[in-house]
Amino acid sequence: MPRLFDRYRPSYNLSPGFNVPVVRREENPNEDGVVVHCMKWGLIPSFTKQNKKPDHYKMFNARSESIKEKASFRRLLPKNRCLVAVEGFYEWKKDGSKKQPFYIHLKDVRPLVFAALYDSWKNGEEEVIYTFTIVTTSSSSSLRWLHG
């Protein structure tokens, strides 16, 4: 396996296409451990054609309400789950034609942990690229004011 953190660069403002550390289970079924693995945010399904330039913005989130209906996600549910820890995230509130960013985080220093799904894809150079999508759901009552 390639060195897992060669491409990671810490940032306070990540977006799809960035390399991010995630926690996942060992790939070897005989081992019962977890590893921290640097993956690119924005799922590229393994069946994507090698000569196609991937668009990480197409599949950066997976709605939990429809995750079992979409083949790209459903097939990953049994074994390709992972966790993404962050200090916080930005949510944008629309006000007419303007958008205002709000930084969402816990009051203490604990990280937020997102559920995610991952896959591996071989690009045109036969390099294996690991990518993930964050599982999202409807806003909690404390954040609904952002989406009103």
Automatic annotation (TrEMBL):
Q: Name one GO biological process term.
A: proteolysis
What UniProt keywords are attached to this protein's entry?
Covalent protein-DNA linkage, DNA damage, DNA-binding, Hydrolase, Lyase, Protease
Would I find Cytoplasm among this entry's keywords?
no
Pfam families from the xrefs? SRAP (PF02586)
> Gene3D superfamilies, alphabetically?
SOS response associated peptidase-like
Q: Name one GO molecular function term.
A: lyase activity
Question: What family is this protein classified in?
Answer: Belongs to the SOS response-associated peptidase family.
Q: Which PANTHER family match?
A: ABASIC SITE PROCESSING PROTEIN HMCES, DC12-RELATED
- Can you say what this protein is called? Embryonic stem cell-specific 5-hydroxymethylcytosine-binding protein
Q: Native species of this protein? A: Cuscuta europaea (European dodder)
- What does the organism's lineage look like at the top? Eukaryota, Viridiplantae, Streptophyta, Embryophyta, Tracheophyta
